[in-house]
Amino acid sequence: MPANFPEMSATAEVEAYNHVQRALRLGRYKPGDRLIPEEIAAEIGMSRMPVREAFRRLASDGLVVLRPNRGCVVAGLTVDELFEIFEIRSVLEGLAVRLAMPRIDEEEFEELDRLLERMERAGQSGGGDWVVRHQEFHGRICALSQRPKLIHQISALHVVIEPYMRIWFDDCNKPLSAREEHAAVIAALRSGDAHHAEQVMQEHVLGTAPLLAEFVSPSR
Amino acid sequence: MPANFPEMSATAEVEAYNHVQRALRLGRYKPGDRLIPEEIAAEIGMSRMPVREAFRRLASDGLVVLRPNRGCVVAGLTVDELFEIFEIRSVLEGLAVRLAMPRIDEEEFEELDRLLERMERAGQSGGGDWVVRHQEFHGRICALSQRPKLIHQISALHVVIEPYMRIWFDDCNKPLSAREEHAAVIAALRSGDAHHAEQVMQEHVLGTAPLLAEFVSPSR
DNA sequence: AAAAGTATTTTTGTATCCACGTATCATCAA
DNA sequence: TTGATGATACGTGGATACAAAAATACTTTT
């Protein structure tokens, strides 16, 4: 008999949550689309109850909107909301960098360089997933902060903006300044000045918003 | 026939969510307590299903922990987690103050003074709810930032720490430096220096954590 | 043909039901 | 006495059933 992996047999609710979240991140559903529990339940072979429960969490994450008696629709971000999320990310990720600073050793710097390199490669050969690589870089720094709740909040925001990042990358197809700015973050971390590194990260995050917004609501 | 107020007849899930959240904020349930859907459902006259759904959102808020096949228990914060939340609050509320600055007029300053006064009165005559007044002060400044998502995140954190704030206030019974620090925040806002005001708020929030922690895990 | 009303279908919200997992506690062996 | 074993009660996860609300299609009327 094969070994029993308890994480394999997650509850149906978890399965439904992951399934829908993944589809939303990949942009398979578009803002305004109506999600019908029955359909999704059928897709993954369960009843609609666990799907309904998953919807509650997705709504709490801000990924969908639930209105009484009229179901679940995919949430869309206005340009203002997009800016707001980047504003929040800027201070949270700034904090993460500040906290990460004293925990970074030379080995870790090499890992960050590697991640930077991987992102660049993914950006050039459109095949690799640039958006995921980009997130991995940010995620690695957050992880270094050693703050579970902070990490969780930041990654929740990354999920919300992921579909927009994908549209952005698909359209403009060049990570533009991302490589330089990430390199600047690493440099700031190497400098040992925590306050400065926080500042650089804040500016990197905030600086991305207007570029991204241009693709969400073109030429305003 | 009376007018129909649609917000009065919310769904059962909303009712369950509010009911349990309120109980948690007031400290009626203690960390580690097991919440049995059947019991709660009976209390407010509904079946288990809406309660189960409410649990998902409460778990997403970090108020309870849901583990497969072993139900719902009230989440407790370790001292580390408490500090982490105050760290996050410090940058979020710092951001809120920075954004609020350009939107405050003289009338608003008077309102803040009034809220400060009300908090002080509630602190002296133990009757009024000091914790709520304290939150109202912070909430007002957040509201001035005009950032719905920021406001939402901050208030979610306030809910999580509310039970600990209550224990703190009940035990030490003096808001201590709160009045002075809030006054300092107002003063910083009046100064017109956004960066300085952000700094003052960050320090106020961070400074509260160690005092509070002392009551959560006494004399460590 | 447009508007209004009505019937029909779909979907949501909630309750109930059942199978399985977990905890509790008594029993028994060492 | 202690530790394993098994029976029992309880709770959880999920499916199904049913009522109420919305959305949709279909008349009817003008």
UniProtKB/TrEMBL annotation, chains A, B:
Keywords: DNA-binding, Transcription, Transcription regulation. It comes from the Bacteria. InterPro entries: GntR_C, TF_FadR/GntR_C, Tscrpt_reg_HTH_GntR, WH-like_DNA-bd_sf, WH_DNA-bd_sf. Residues 10-77 form the HTH gntR-type domain. SUPFAM superfamilies: GntR ligand-binding domain-like, Winged helix' DNA-binding domain. SMART domains: FCD, HTH_GNTR. This is GntR family transcriptional regulator.
